[in-house]
Amino acid sequence: MDANIVVMGTESVGKSALTVRLLTRRFIGEYGDIESIYSHSFMVDGREITLNIWDSPCSEDLSVETSLFEKKVQWADGYVLVYSICDRASFNSVSRLIQTIKSTKDYLNADKAPIVIVGNKRDLCHRRTVLSEEGRLLALNTDCHFYEVSAAENYHSVLMVFHGLVNRMKDAKMTMKRPLGFKGIVKSMSAVFARRRTDSF
Ligand SMILES: Nc1nc2c(ncn2[C@@H]2O[C@H](COP(=O)(O)OP(=O)(O)OP(=O)(O)O)[C@@H](O)[C@H]2O)c(=O)[nH]1
User: Fold this and answer.
1) CA distance linking residue 160 with residue 150, whole number of Å
2) ipTM attached to this prediction
3) Residue 82 Cα: closest atom of ligand 1
4) Of ligand 1's atoms, which has the minimum distance to the CA of residue 55?
5) Helix (H) or strand (E) holding 49
6) Top-level EC class, please (predicted)?
């Protein structure tokens, strides 16, 4: 199975940290302002799954970004929407993103693609401003899955996010997508930071 996942959320919530954690099992602290698509393969229930993961900074200015946003929605088989549990504005933004994704999908008549909501930075619970229950309730109300994780502290919880999404995608009807033109597991940090221009497809 080959599936496309878009990782979205506001600035500094840990989108790159989550993606890099999945790819390398490591947390390196600083990630720079990278927008990249990575390819990562792993086994689930004896089957090889290849995920193409688009780590994208979010622009709230959808009037400017509409065509890029539509491109992402057309491309995506699933979404990881990230907020920081210490940043209420990032949580509110995820809530708005879900509505925008759903209305764009309706507008484009795109396939139903599952969404996972991720509350990141769980290790900073002394600075928490968003309760777990709020995340859980948002997920319940919008038919999404919900996880709270710490990309800084834990690889397995991050793995669970992507496994959970893969399981939901298996249930959803998947249409064949145009291949990205590159594949393979990203194995080293230098490969992780090899940039891929997103306007090339
Ligand atoms: N304590 C803690 N810090 C984290 C965690 N995840 C990410 N960070 C930190 O938060 C900052 C932003 O992380 P990034 O992964 O660059 O966030 P991003 O969402 O990709 O940011 P942009 O690319 O600017 O949109 C960095 O300083 C990370 O070290 C976490 O789980 N816990």
Assistant:
1) 12
2) 0.98
3) 19
4) 20
5) strand 47-55
6) hydrolase
